[in-house]
Amino acid sequence: MGSLIRNLLKKSREEATDKIKQIDLNDLITREVEFMDGDVNFKHGPQKVLNQAPSLPPISGVYTDFSQVVHNLIQNAMEAMQFSPTGKLTITTQHDRSSYYIRIEDTGGGIPPEIGEKIFDPFFTTKSDKEDRGDRSSAGTGLGLYTCREIIKSYDGTISVENRSGKGVVFTVSLPKQQLRRSFDKGR
């Protein structure tokens, strides 16, 4: 319980500012997973595997931006595996000479082909079906993936999805190493 409270306090302090600073993505991801462990369904749900690059250099950015993207992608992965008997969440960090990569992989049912092109559209959600059945905890606004994409675009990065129908989904965030600030901060 003490580590959860310490993690919550650190997360609150980090997210209290919108200043650009050096961020250890491995530490951010680890803390986000520890924070989400406060939810009993997450803690005792699917297996969680962190494959973090040991020599990942810090990235310049706003902590809240990356925390929000990681949180949204993990939350979506967990919801996708809600009915999966052998759920596994794998989060991988990598880098090469030009980019950072964050891969969030689940073993859920995948994305139905008829909605694959819509998942990044604002206000598009598949969660309203669950709300209609009375499961309000899973109701969504349809802004999670859209917001993730917009945040990553603001760093001149990309977010892609690999749909392995019936076997899960892999979201890959790619961020250039040379970015210094969010593009919407330019000109301030």
Explain what the structure shows:
This protein has 188 residues and is α+β, with helices and mostly antiparallel strands. Helices cover 34% and strands 23% of the residues. The protein has a 5-stranded mixed sheet with strand order 2-4-5-7-6. Strands 1-3 form a two-stranded antiparallel sheet. Helix 1 crosses helix 2 and helix 4 runs antiparallel to helix 6. The chain is globular. The protein starts with a helix and ends in a 12-residue tail after the last strand. The model is unreliable at 129-137 (pLDDT under 50).
List keywords for this structure.
188 residues, alpha+beta, 5-stranded mixed beta sheet, two-stranded antiparallel sheet, 7 strands, 34% helix, 23% strand
Fraction of residues in helices? 25-40%
Unreliable spans are: 129-137
Q: Please report the number of helical segments.
A: 6
Main beta-sheet annotation: 5 strands, mixed
| Integer-rounded radius of gyration | 16 Å
Percent range for β-strand residues: 15-25%
Strand line-up of the largest beta sheet: 2-4-5-7-6
What letter string, H or E per element, gives the SSE order?
A: HEHHEEHEEHHEE
Question: How much is the average pLDDT?
Answer: 81
Tell me the span between the first and last alpha carbons: 42 Å
Structural class by sheet pairing and helices: alpha+beta
Globular, elongated, flat, extended or rod-shaped: what is the shape? globular
User: How many beta-strand elements?
Assistant: 7
